[in-house]
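Regression check, 4-nitrophenyl phosphate case 147:
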Amino acid sequence: MICLGNICRSPMAEGIVRHMAAVRGIETTLDSCGTSGHHDGESADPRSISTMAKHNIDISDLKSRKIRISDFDEFDELFVMDHSNMTNVLNLARNEEDEKKVKLFLNEAFPGENREVPDPYYGGDSGFDKVYDMLYRAADSFLNRIS
Ligand code: 4NP
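Current build output:
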């Protein structure tokens, strides 16, 4: 799960998929990261943590990290939140095989529509609730596909 800062959208996506997979008994290898590295080592944004806590999911232990080239080797699919993330990650791809792994996460729920999870960082708390709902739908569809 990849966004810009790895403190808002992608840690929420990681928490939702991890939680939902555990509830459904699906094994996944999952992580999240950001393209910028500006928040390296930081916890998720307090608004992300509190939004997730409303749904009884604890992401307070997650720490931001920057994407690594080895992520292309370690993971089968690299899910990005918006088109800007997509461009940033595709710029790191070494070959066509890497490029094929990069996908917009909301396309899981809305195939082919290329919808984005909007960056909630500069907005109010309601933006985080909307992000949660979008990520929940995508996570549900994703886990249905792989299970
Ligand atoms: P995220 O949100 O990419 O969903 O983690 C952002 C977090 C921080 C910044 C931008 C977006 N920032 O500019 O610091």
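Comparison notes: The chain has a mean pLDDT of 98. Residues 35 and 88 are 7 Å apart (CA to CA). No diff flagged against the previous build.
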